[in-house]
## 1
Amino acid sequence: MKATRIYTLLALLLMAGGVAMQAQEPVTNANPTGLFESRKAQHGNPIQQPSIVSETSAWLHYDDGIFNTNLGYIPENIPFSWAVAFAPALLQSYEGYTLTKVALYENEYNTGDLLLSVYYGNSYMPLTLMSQQTVATWDIDNLYDMDLEQQVDIDTTQYLWIVFSELTATETFSAACSWNETDPNPNARWVQTQENKWEDAEIYGFPYIQFMIWAYVTDDPLGVETQLTSMRSSVYPNPGSNLLNIRTTLQNARVEIYDLTGRQIYNQEITENITSINADGWLSGMYFWKIISNNKEAENGKWIKQ
């Protein structure tokens, strides 16, 4: 059954280039444009997450792995684009790596092919096109991963922008989002509603959305294969700062966290579906997490502290 759509017309706030990262209040415009929200009646189920199958690879993403809502832009004949941007500070941990795959959460609101573009850029817009291809969409209510036809080397001096665009304007809501009221990252909510104009969705009244776009990086682009597996644990936001959340449905479990030297820095039993960890005193860099269930390692992954 199609979920009920809730349409909210929001005003457009024009911003000068270079200040898109600043928090600003939405304002009423004499001719408001239409960034709409569509909220599904039922949401919150864990997604089928791409797994990490190599110790020298990782999926980079900001969302928590829980689908919440879709966004779209529906004025007259203007295709909608949305993006995430990974900052150089995050990418330092992946110097020498290559972006080989991208994953997008797809559902019933994806009604046509999309254009996937990868750019090098700065903190407020993509600049240099590195890879571009047309991708089909599927009503799967889950992440769908796709190989890049042109792989992209990680440049640790520039932002890495992953952009999805509608090929034609549609009255749908193409961009799937998670919802994070605790530690939302502005680099996970970029929207383009006019040609060559990128804006923070916060100015439209959406400070907590995080677009469900994942980027797969590896230092072995020819030898590593990934597959979609049913993982029961996720760590978010990833990358993050002072708060690390672990969501799991595993029973009789505990979480262990290690630094790059292999030293265990955290060990705690899991008694709730979501466990929040204060990482305020941890150094910036990469960490490894494990979920131990019934005295066996059940799942693992990486987390980046910015």
## 2
Amino acid sequence: MLHAFTRSPVHPFTLSPIVILLSASIVLAATVDDLYKPVAEKEVARDYVAAVGVYQRVADDYPDDARAPKAMVRVGDLYLLLKKPDEAIKSYQLVADSYTDVPEVGQALVGIAKVYRDQGNGEKLESTASFRKFFDIRRRIASASGSSHN
């Protein structure tokens, strides 16, 4: 076989790194189930940084999977455990902005509220779109159930 550009002979093993790289990428492609298997162990072992990485990968690689918003809420929860409230808010906000009719939106909005409450920053909470969205969702649920709790 001749090299396409130099027209010199190509050793058969010259192409093997490409084959190995392609094979490795196929092996590294995981399903959501494959990703979720070890994450509980990471949390039990309090390896929260590794767990965040796994949940983040689920959300990034499988945004349409039903577990993606759950994964992002969990990322926010773990960031709180890691004492990174700003990162937690970003994660929760991503859920609130990216999804609509899933229970995790409410969980994410409550997470944002908890962070601001813990920071003693009620003014910031009330000025956010998340705060208004939370009460809008609450009103929709109440009106759908025939309740008058506003």
